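_Full entry_
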Amino acid sequence: MAAILTDDVLEQARHGDTGALTAIYQNLAAPVHGYLAAKGLEDPEAAAQEVFLTVFARLADVTGGAAGLRKFTFSIAHARMVDATRARARAPLAVEYDAATDPRVESSPQDELLGRLESGNLAQALESLVPDQRECVMLRIVAGMSIEETAEIMGKSAGSIKQLQRRGLLTMKKSLEEVNGDD
């Protein structure tokens, strides 16, 4: 249980008594946090910490004893809330990225390849690859292995796997386009 906030506790805190500073924090932190949270701040914990950093740095400015400290603390909390509200109003609206609605997105060779799996020409396209490319594509796309897992299995670097996959998918795409007459 926190010590009661008195004028003596405030005076001790002004002289750097850590117990008194702790008592101030324990008495006022929950109400300050509750106030900031009720006002809708995105991060009331961080704002409350800023309030107490300011309060502790300016204890010499507090007048009116313990009641004045409480008033001073909540005036700083209110100022932080106003600052945060103004900053949020000036900030651009944050919207989650949705690739499905982004007109700049082009399909990758992997997406196109997977889209053509139903064409029945996949085996022929796989045969157009050199053995390392085929193994890489099979492990990455068909087996769903990560780049690191594929690199370990094939005894190659992650960069080599990325290149093998890229080149293999482009070769397969070209092979499927030739078979399907897409030019």
Summary: Residues 107-180 form a domain with the Arc Repressor Mutant, subunit A fold (CATH 1.10.10.10).
